[in-house]
Amino acid sequence: MPGLFLKNLTLSHFRSHKRGQLVCDGRPLAIYGPNGAGKTNILEAVSLFSPGRGLRRSSAEEMTRRPEALGWKLTGLVQAPEGLHEIEIWSEGGAARQLRIDGKTAPQTALGKMVRVIWLIPALDRLWIEGAEGRRRFLDRITLSFFPDHAELSLTYEKAMRQRNRLLKDQVRDASWYDALETQMGRSGAEIHTNRKAALNSLLVAQSGAETAFPIAELSLTQSDGTLPETADDLKQALAEGRNRDMIAGRTLVGPHRTDMDAVYSAKGVPAKDCSTGEQKALLISLILANGRALAKQTGAPPILLLDEVAAHLDADRRAALYDEICALGAQAWMTGTGPELFTDLAGRAQFVEVRDTDGISNVDAPL
Known about the structure:
Strand order of the largest sheet: 2-1-4-5-6-7
Number of domains: 2
Largest sheet: 6 strands, antiparallel
CATH superfamily of the largest domain: P-loop containing nucleotide triphosphate hydrolases
Helix content: 25-40%
CATH class of the largest domain: Alpha Beta
CATH architecture of the largest domain: 3-Layer(aba) Sandwich
């Protein structure tokens, strides 16, 4: 039995679900039903058991069920390696979501140290061919899974950068206004870069050390304007030296917010952006599985996996290989698809959940 999984999930007025409840036993879940029935909404609910804005990056107000707009609540019983925890997450009147762990109010950062959740959603299928921002976000989600404090570092850096950008736009030239902000950006920016490099290295080790049906991706960090200074002092100095250039641009042009992640299909030596749609999907799955293996080694338990419409672009053999790898990892994977036939190879190894849409209310059946 895995050391980390949701034993029970209750949704109240969340998205399309007026009320839904799932009782789980730690095995993967094959969630199927017609388009629009609310399958992805269930995965989004689970994603909120980790820090951040969830897999859709939606506001708390956007998650409330319409037309009532009463607010929403999620309750989960989490089996973690150190024991059971009751987690309550809710929002009232569109306000920022609140969190209680075992009956006590807690910050979101507490979730990152208790529950590791990683996901792959259809919106990521274009990751390799779209802008760098999406790849940075993907990289930071992976990094956060290894370093729970990474989100706080990012917030600190971004807050200082916004203040610096405001000074630049206002054409402020007095160095004393910049010094404290650039010191903070140098310190947090260097840690962000160090964490990202360590996360990529963990993925590379986890990929190379596994026999898998999915391709290995060679990963590297690049900088849009050359090389990113790696120490806090060097980054601070680069920011100071670049003030005039940044003032002309009206924004900060050096720092980890300008980082990109490159990937190459190792066996073919082809950049991910030039691979076929199926190969690009396989590379993403390879990274998610490597993330899971690396976390299992680091924490002693595999993370919870959320795989929305994961069968898309996979042939029958690769689908079967994916399910075998998930079961070998021992992860509770929440997977969605339009019909149970997509999960035939999981018969006897997973719980099957049918989601139906009746009169505008999505009904979640108990797992079979």
